[in-house]
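tool_log.txt
---
The assistant was asked to compare two proteins side by side. It first ran the structure predictor on the initial sequence, then on the second. Raw inputs and outputs are pasted verbatim so the downstream comparison step can read them without reformatting.
(1)
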Amino acid sequence: MIVLREGETSPASQASVTTIGVFDGLHLGHQQVLGEVKALALDRGALSTVVTFDPHPALLFAPESAPLQLGTLDQRLEGFAALGIDQVRILKFDAVLAQESARSFIERVLVSELRVCDVVVGEDFQFGHDREGNVAMLKREGLTHAFSVHPAPIYGGSQRWSSTAVRNALGGGDLFTANALLGRPFTLRGTVVHGDARGGELGYRTANMALESRQQLPGLGIYAGAAHTADATWRPAAISVGTRPQFYDDGAVLVEVHLPGFDADLYHARLDVAFMSRLRGEKVFNTTDELVDQIDHDVAQTLEIFKSFIPESSALLD
């Protein structure tokens, strides 16, 4: 897959079928749009192309209310590749881009850089300075620059498939709905850092994850899932997203991952953690022995649930 950043132009001479958006989470609605892009590109002999933004535009306009991210930019790019997209243009969303007119954006990015022959966007898509651009404007400009516009419907019916819906479900602890909207298990990416070794003292060593600052988390609780380790293997993972009320009361939320039967050093390694099922909420136990008994049960459930795990790249292609 070709990835174009600022100052780079496509080495390919082909035209492109292009869609535009953040595509945070690559949920089922996004996958439908990208499927249409791929089908049109195959028919036209063109490159299936995504124009995406980093960071999220809302961080510039309303940082205090900007949505938390469902995944990192690298995860997004890997998802595009898994879905068979040929080319991605990453636009840095800053004050300069925010001031660019919709017509200038069309001429600079779509026509000059990407040689667009078809554009696929949501029927409510808006872009450019003061959101002056929309589907109707794209169609008018298409007559001038010889490209066609294909408005995509709102997918999902009464439960719209959207990044907002995924965030709301995750934040409310509704992992079942979030994963259904994504079409695969929600996956966190982070780096393993040193903790206070409390898990090891209980007989359950954990990997403590450092995440990007604006990462959306599932609701507090204990989860069964899978972790992708440095040896490129998916392993069962019992996951805690919580404040560890048994031992602390500072309110700090941590993501801790126990990998049953795995004892290698993961410090400073990247770890992907897929959330398959919510097992229970946080709880304070009367004794440490009761806590350990519960962890025993959580791990046993995790091992059973992991048997049905499908890696994300395979799930995206289903």
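(2)
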Amino acid sequence: MQLVELTAADQEVLAAARDVIVRNYSEDRHGVGAAIRAASGQIYPGVNIEAPGSGPCAEHVALGAAISNGERNYDIVVAVAGWEPPYPILHPCGTCRQMLLDYAPDIWVILSVEGQPVKAPIGDLLPFPYRFFGE
């Protein structure tokens, strides 16, 4: 797996994810914050939505905000836990990995490896994916 240190710009995305969950945390409704940076440089935050049975993850909401604003190319994404300062990095679930690979096959994902923030290409996180949108 290719792991790369974060840049200052990547740290801004991490800060945006932490900011959105600090402002919107709700124990019963919003426990995860995420942020995605589009190729344009714009950062789009989002929080998860709890609903009976399921609800979209924060990464889905952030990507939806980016798409709703006309973005189609993305650089990096991160999710963080909202229930415990310093709001640790969460690795994307399997559904998010598939969704990110479908919509942003070249995106990097911020991870925590041995307590250090690093980034990896989404393809490294989901080898042999299901290809709904084709090759």
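---
observation on (2): The chain has four helices and seven strands. The chain has one domain: 4-125.
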